[in-house]
Design brief:
Elements (H helix, E strand, L loop, with lengths): L1 H15 L4 H25 L7 E3 L2 E3 L18 E3 L7 E2 L13 E3 L7 E2 L12 E3 L7 E2 L10 E3 L7 H12 L8 E3 L21 E3 L20 E3 L10 H8 L5 E3 L5 E2 L5 H9 L11 E3 L24 H29 L1 H28 L3 H11 L1
The protein binds 2-acetamido-2-deoxy-beta-D-glucopyranose (8 copies).
The site of one 2-acetamido-2-deoxy-beta-D-glucopyranose (NAG) has 7 residues, from strand 9 and strand 10.
Protein name: LRRCT domain-containing protein
Pfam families: LRR_8 (PF13855)
Keywords: Leucine-rich repeat, Membrane, Repeat, Signal, Transmembrane, Transmembrane helix
């Protein structure tokens, strides 16, 4: 901008003073060159990398097919967005120069397989790490002195097996400053006991859109949670122990909608709790999915007398028919056995006689041999060998 404005001034000046024309013309070229060099200096010195946009400590390199973090980044970068690219791993090599001020790192929508703890080596102030929509397989424990506060791992894992990696990172006890953790859109089915116990600052936890089938005693114990999102899982009830854990955080706001609640005797504690407590923000929106005659009934409108574990319709009937069937099969086997015995009665008789005869022959053989070996010197030997 400055260049285009200043050069016409030099040009008109050159026209006005004829003799100085050539000198001023050269001055103009020199000025232009100077401006170019300055412009280039701005580009390399403040260092906005190729394919990136830099503005007030924010660097955005989005949807550029990048395979690694662009270098060098401006030393004063605070927020870095390298989203929608093809990065496969991050480690200290991704950040070879120290970025003291970098606090927010967004790496959503890449193909990151490996997150190495050395990534923190040159990012001492990193507080927000967004790894949404990646394919993480390897995740190494973060260094003890990390300053991470917000960790977004929504839809971040390659498969169920690789999710174990993050569970051990969470349990490693190094996320001492973490306040917000997003584990939504992952396939967690159950979470181990005490998973969040070491996260002593965690206030916001999202487990939305997972596959959780149950909350275990102790899973949510520990952190001072204020916002807990359990929507859109596969919970069918919530046990008393977990409700008691909710109650330990009086400021908690929990969201529970979108779960297939089964309204039988096991959900009674939850129903009573919902009527009594205001912690579930969306308690008006929870309704039964099972059994058929209660489908769609809001949990808040249930009367405890409706909550029965009624097995007479299915379980008991199944058991009864299976007992009858077992009896029939046993009777049939017995009849067949008797029939076989009966048909073979002659053979069996013959067989018994044969055995009896064989025994008799054997005994007679003894007698015979005994008589033969009546020589006292041999008798001892013969008896020993028969025994
Ligand atoms: C990380 O990715 C870069 C770029 O694709 C690659 O050159 C490097 O070898 C990878 N490092 C590891 C440890 O996988
Ligand atoms: C982190 O950021 C603060 C200010 O934002 C700054 O004073 C400090 O030097 C940075 N580095 C470390 C290691 O704390
Ligand atoms: C953490 O400690 C290691 C050495 O123990 C050091 O190299 C690193 O810079 C430290 N990181 C932060 C964020 O302080
Ligand atoms: C994590 O990322 C998802 C998707 O971008 C977003 O909806 C969510 O709010 C983020 N969570 C946090 C804690 O920033
Ligand atoms: C659940 O807790 C409530 C209140 O603490 C108690 O009244 C109820 O008996 C408990 N239910 C079970 C099954 O322990
Ligand atoms: C849950 O765990 C705590 C601590 O381990 C224990 O005191 C409590 O009795 C358990 N509750 C149930 C219902 O198992
Ligand atoms: C309850 O559901 C309705 C309709 O789905 C939605 O508009 C409302 O925000 C929900 N309320 C809460 C507290 O989530
Ligand atoms: C229990 O099951 C029986 C037989 O299926 C049915 O007649 C009865 O209405 C059921 N009771 C309840 C409370 O659902």
């Amino acid at each position: 901008m400055r260049g285009t404005r200043s050069s016409p001034r030099v040009f008109t000046g050159g026209h006005r003073d004829g003799p100085a024309h050539v000198g001023l013309w050269m001055l103009r070229v020199v000025l232009l060159l100077l401006l170019l060099v300055l412009a280039a200096g701005v580009q390399t010195g403040e260092g906005c990398p190729d394919k990136c946009l830099c503005a007030t400590q924010t660097v955005k390199c989005q949807n550029q097919d990048l395979e690694s973090i662009p270098q060098p980044l401006p030393a004063n970068t605070r927020s870095l967005f390298v989203t929608g690219n093809h990065i496969t791993n991050i480690s200290v090599e991704s950040f070879p120069t120290r970025l003291e001020l970098l606090t927010d790192l967004y790496l959503n929508g890449n193909q990151i397989k490996s997150v190495d703890s050395t990534v923190f080596d040159n990012l001492p102030n990193l507080s927000r790490l967004d790894l949404t929509d990646n394919k993480i397989v390897h995740f190494s424990a973060f260094p003890v002195n990390n300053t991470l506060q917000v960790l977004n791992l929504s839809s971040a894992f390659h498969n169920r097996l690789s999710m174990d990696a993050v569970l051990s990172v969470l349990q490693s006890g190094t996320l001492l400053h973490l306040t917000s953790l997003d584990l939504s859109n992952n396939d967690f089915v159950v979470l181990p006991d005490g998973l969040f116990a070491g996260l002593s600052k965690l206030t916001t936890l999202s487990l939305r859109k997972g596959s959780l089938i149950a909350l275990q005693n102790g899973t949510l114990a520990g952190p001072p949670l204020l916002d807990l999102d359990l929507r859109d899982n596969r919970l069918r009830e919530i046990p008393n122990a977990s409700l008691a854990e909710f109650d330990l955080n009086p400021g908690l706001r929990v969201l529970l909608a979108g779960n297939p609640w089964r309204c039988d005797c096991f959900i009674e504690d939850l129903v009573l709790w919902l009527k009594d407590s205001t912690l579930a923000m969306d308690r008006q929106n929870l309704s039964c999915v099972d059994p058929g005659d209660l489908r769609g009934v809001p949990l808040l409108q249930l009367d405890p007398s409706q909550l029965e574990c009624n097995y007479s319709g299915d379980m008991k009937g199944v058991l009864e028919t299976s007992y009858v069937f077992l009896g029939l099969v046993l009777a049939l086997i017995g009849v067949i056995f008797l029939l076989v015995l009966y048909l073979n009665r002659k053979g069996i008789k013959r067989w018994i006689y044969n055995i009896r005869d064989a025994c008799r022959d054997h005994m007679e053989g003894y007698h015979y041999r005994y008589e033969i070996n009546s020589d006292p010197r041999l008798a001892n030997l013969s008896i020993n060998s028969d025994v």
